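EI: anyone free to look at a 320-residue chain?
SC: sure, send it
EI:
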Amino acid sequence: QISLKWCCYCEVVFDPPVFLRNPLLAWSSLETELHRFDKMATSDETVAVENIPFAVSLMSGAVAGAAVDVSLFPIDTVKTRLQAAGGFWNAGGFKGIYNGILVAFIGGVPGAALFFSAYDFSRQNLQNRYGESPIVHMTAASIGETFACLARVPTENVKQKQQAGVYDSMAKAVRGIRQARGLSGFYAGYGTTLAREIPFSLIQFPLWEAAKAAIVNRQESPVEAWQSALCGSATGGFAAAVTTPLDVCKTRLMLDVAGKYKGLVGTMQTVFHEEGWRALFAGIQPRVFWISLGGFVFFGAYEKAKESLMRITGKSESAY
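SC: here you go
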């Protein structure tokens, strides 16, 4: 049964006709797949659902977001400048490598807090109804990303313009964006960011959960924070490589002051025709390195904070 579930998961995520050509169709099929997995479940199959209070998820996510954004910010700057239309050196090279770190911290903490609180809440409720399956994790991750991007995208717009040298301070970036495009300018690239983050999470989180479950089954005890960190690092690096073209398009849209790029598909076509397919994978090395290392810090900090908060609140968590 586990093999069948993973075959169905791979079919939804990696089948180009369904997912790449028509992502809305793939999204609408999630509920159908959940019902199918529910019917597949045998009468004696039970799932131990991890019971995490909402406040614990919220605070643990905030800790994880602060840890990864502050510690790995220089690598993110290098990646952003590599993906800029003018190239790495025109975007500033190695000068001002910490430009935008304040806004990254301001946005990263609530973004990660919103993600994990929505993810854990959705996952627990879906598991109670449908049982354990990759589709549950895919759906919960998508919900988490939708909420997280409400905080992440405005700060990402400000941060990336500072990183690329468009503005030299957060205050100037905020004023410049508002004057140029109004309040909607802070959400430029929101749809493209979701189009990048949701496929990323559709790949990473089911793999992360499956890796943790395999460890639990082998050692017959809950995963340690360092084990969760290693799982997050490996799965994050793989997802980062696959979704790099989406990240390039998101960066181009956010740095676009002249209005050259139009939407995800239009941006991808423009970059491909003008610069070739290699440009769609610009920054893949620092992106994979950054997200692999970031996954270790992010998931390790999340698990450690969660364990500590669960002990403080006197709650117990069941294994997957």
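EI: The two ends are 17 Å apart (CA to CA).
SC: 👍
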